[in-house]
Structures
1.
Amino acid sequence: MIPALLVSGSSSTLVHLSPVDLIIIVFYFVLVLAIGMYLKEQANTGEDFFMAGREMTAWVAGLAFLSANLGSLELMGWAGNAYKYGILAAHWYWIGAIPAMLFLALVMMPFYHICKTHSVPGYLKLRYGQGAQALSSISFAFMTVLMSGINMYAMAVVMRVVLGWNIHFSILVSSITVMIYVALGGLRSAIFNEVLQFFLIWAGALLIPVLGLMEAGGWNGLKAKILQNLTEQHVTNPGAYTHAWSTLGSFTDNPMGINWVGIVFGLGAVISMGYWTTDFLVVQRVLAAKDLRSAKLAPIIGAAFKMMVPFIVILPGLLGLALLRDPHTGSLLRLVPANLAWSETGQAQGLHGYDEVLPLMLARYCGPGLLGLGITALIAGFMSGMAGNVSAFTTVWTYDIYGALIKKDASDESKVRMGRWCTVIGVGISIVTAYFAMHAQSIMDYVQALFSFFIAPLFGTVILGMLWKRTTKAGGFWGLLAGTMSSVGMYVWVKVDPGAVRYVALSMQAQDQAQNMFRALWCCLICVVVTVVVSLVTKPKPDSELKDLVYGLTPIPKEEHVTILHSPVFWGAVVAIAFVILQIIFW
Amino acid sequence: MKSGGSLSIWFFIGVSLAVNGAVIFGTGIYELVSPPANQVVLYNLHANIWWGGLLLILGLFFSLRFSPARERARMAGNS
């Protein structure tokens, strides 16, 4: 029997939990809180609370690096995207992640690690001064709590649709749990729980593709079933759903309305590089590594597992295309956009949204116990993402806003105190944002776009600062501002005049994701051009002030006594080769 | 790995996998003896038995390998 507080009043839910499932979910909450309480004693100094003492091994930092990104709606959202766009969605895990993670490990990590910065805005302060730091830290702090709240709301909606849980109950229980364990143990607690969540996500989600492939008759059987089902539904070019590259020659040949330029340059070279190398949410985990070799190995370990995530995220979406049928009529089940599925009409007709494909597959194969583990995997995903947002917000607020702009002489003790309060306040703002989003559904689209406005140009600013010593303080600031403003401008242009999409995304067929790719590409280029031009007409810093910050002026420690099996370069090459092989297999 | 105290993160992971594995394995055995009325697709494969068993074995390995007693002994040996 499920307690009344949990129930939303909705009678139609995707899955029904048994007492065994509830035991598994409750045990998960008890364990994450126990970890937070256990680690409280190890979070007394600023280095402990905000940087986990900078003593994480490569494995712990690498798995936390990946797990922080597995949060929010990652699991269900990308499974839904795989159902909608086919295997093209896997690009967000392959070319949209692996090259950037390897670049972070082998090129950028030495600079982050050697300059001992607490955050990415902290690096900008060292390199460009307070203007660029203030711009990036305020934007980041604002966007992080906003995203955290909106994701929290989205999670609560999912819990209502999937499990019939009360929306307020879901928001309060998940947010208060995260608040307690992060406020108690700081980044160390967030990282430990992220590693635990990583294992639970795999344990709970891995069974779906394994059983799904057995039912579908392997990969070839799955492809044949998808082709047959989509042909029956008169979908244009059904073969495009199972090919990652061969349909990217033209905008009209694939379900996303994108071509290879958008995927390679927009996603692979700009959005992915921006996210994985400058978004402090993920970079903070690697900064906590105990030494430079661990800091370089951590993103490589993360990349190795990231390559495999499509197995538990993309494959269930494709299996949904092949196998899902209406249990009453036996006819093919066609999922629809979320706004249609979750509307009153959609609910009355029993429609399901794209994002529900993962829980639908979970309910298909998982009985009592396994279902509880699968739901725990989804909750763990949401909570690891939220903890990532909250801990990154706390660090940026304390070091880059409070410590840099408000109280410059703050002691270490007062920073830790501020960090704990900031965790509580950050979660509080997230809860308020969640309720705000509840009354303004479209805000989610705008904030997603706003977040991308900042990340793409930030990559241009950071990478020029690291690799070109001629970049000046004014160049960095104006380049970042111009990149951000141009991205906002293009977004508004397309909103005001939808026909402008043919200029911004080079095609009238471009869907939302394709528009994001091209907008990111242009705004990053604008950032780079403005930074270079302004730098060339302004006075650069002397070399002595750029030591440990810029390539060519930073002595990188040599790894002379490291065997090949402990070498980051070797493992980076192994991951790169595996990445290329995957692209060829799924071409 | 220095984990802050004598408990390693891998120990917590082991406990989590072992408890979840035991519960799922036990449920699978119960369902084998008393099959449910509403069966999931591929019920005949009894995924909860072998998946639960696998998690239990993995969890026990991590729990024992990184148990507090072993960690304390290892730290004492290092100091």
Note: The first helix of chain B runs from residue 9 to 33.
2.
Amino acid sequence: MNQIAAIAVHAFKESVREKVLYNLVIFAFLMIGAGLVLGSVSVGINDVALVNLGLSAISVFGLFIAIFIGISLVWKEMERRTLYNVLSKPVARAEFILGKFLGLVLTLVVNTAIMTVGFYAVLWFEKGRLGAADLAPLEAVYFILLQLTLVVGVALLFSAISSPALSAVFTLSLYVIGNLLGDLRALGEQSGAALRALLRGLTLVLPDFAALSDIAPAARGELVPGSQIVSHSLYAALYIAALLSATIVIFERKDLR
Amino acid sequence: MWAVEITGLTKDYRLGFWSRKRKRALDHLSLAVERGEVFGLLGPNGAGKTTLLKLLLRLIFPTAGSATMLGRPLNDVRVHARIGYLPENPHLYDHLTAAEFLNYAGWLCGLNTVTRRDRGHQLLEQVGLAESAGVPLRRFSKGMVQRLGIAQALVNDPELIFLDEPMSGLDPLGRRQVRDLILNLRRRGKTVFFSTHILPDAEMLCDRVAILHRGRLQGMGKLREILDSSVESIELVLQDPAAQALEALAPFALASVRTGDRVRLELAPNSDLDAVLAAAIRAGAHIASLNPVKVSLEDYFLARIEGSGSPATHGQADRRGAERE
């Protein structure tokens, strides 16, 4: 446990010292701030536009950050051979993966929290006050965080088996497909038996990012039922556990030449 | 009990896109390292030294064979709490300072905060980096990286230390410091297993050496025995000898060379020295020195490497390796 904490804190420290991260957060703030301009030219829907744009900015820039740090931190340790220093200590390979994952999640939580504070500051500036109805975007932020944690899990898995460029492509592709699972299901229902079975299988296996998206209801100020929060959290936790298990199994057998 | 015991360790690397080709990097290696000794693993580049260390540290996995460290099998990573490792050309984290890096290394070893801080200060002092404790590692020279690499290997005060080319990148002063450090570790009863291709370092530090070439063990033994038992000839130096003295000693000499007012006589290694000295004294010669001419580690090493054309039989050396092959 001590070793996992050490690796997590180190991974967090490493990612927060990446200059790219700050650039992405600054861009996110610019996007969130742009909601003020967009809101002022949208008659009657300025709050909706502001929440939509703000949450989308948190989601998109969070995705960039998740992919960037998810694919690079483990790969860099292997490529630069700094991993030799870690694995020659009493650290199991599974502990290394878990520590890295927790460090990356910690980075995402802190970044998302900072962007959320920026978002609420803009919302407060626009509305003059914040009320109970403004909790809905917070729920959406929680779901975004679940999505990003899943993305980090996927990125870690790919980074254990391929180069950063390929890992980025695979992770982004999976994210896009995972957001289109509803369309895949619909396509399956209109297809022949074989394709239907294939698409059905795919929709069961692939991560359902669409189910974890709550931006549109949040923009309308609709709160998500508690049962949905629990079920989605459970889904994300189980999927992440499966991803981490697969990553550990692969990493346990990897020669670090 | 052995500090390290290796039995038939073999490593094949898969090559090519489909991993169909294989290259044998280590071939049925068996050896054992005693506790408290400084053991040198010698061999030219590509001999398999780094492969062996990586196998022991479980950075790569063996194709065949087994090994134990401090009595524990390799898959027991908890034994690493009692082990230190300096990789060849260590790579450190650019974003950390030297003090932060040692703190991280200590944390990975399970040390508490106070111990980590104290050990960090002490080790930075020991390797001559105390003044650079707060400097980011991206500004470190190669020699400084090597010193810090050694410091991290010692952060947990290990019983068994693996050093892969520890002198690499160091200036003469740094090399001397590392030599002193290894000797100090031996005085404290630690086991040091280090690989090198710099033979004078091995000659100065090792209790025993093993020679590796093309992944196979070519020879192993106590350095003292290798060097002491390898007397090639005996050198007798006479100071300004008279012609009759040289004549009296001629039957014993294989060769003689005059340099200034001194004459150096080369005697057979099994010469009857009592008879030689008696003859010299009788002839009134003034003896300047009498020395055995031993084979150097370099000669031994080269003989093993050059004689390894068909090395299949050499690899089966006695694991204890106390005797020369």
Note: Residues 310-325 of chain B have pLDDT under 50 and may be disordered.
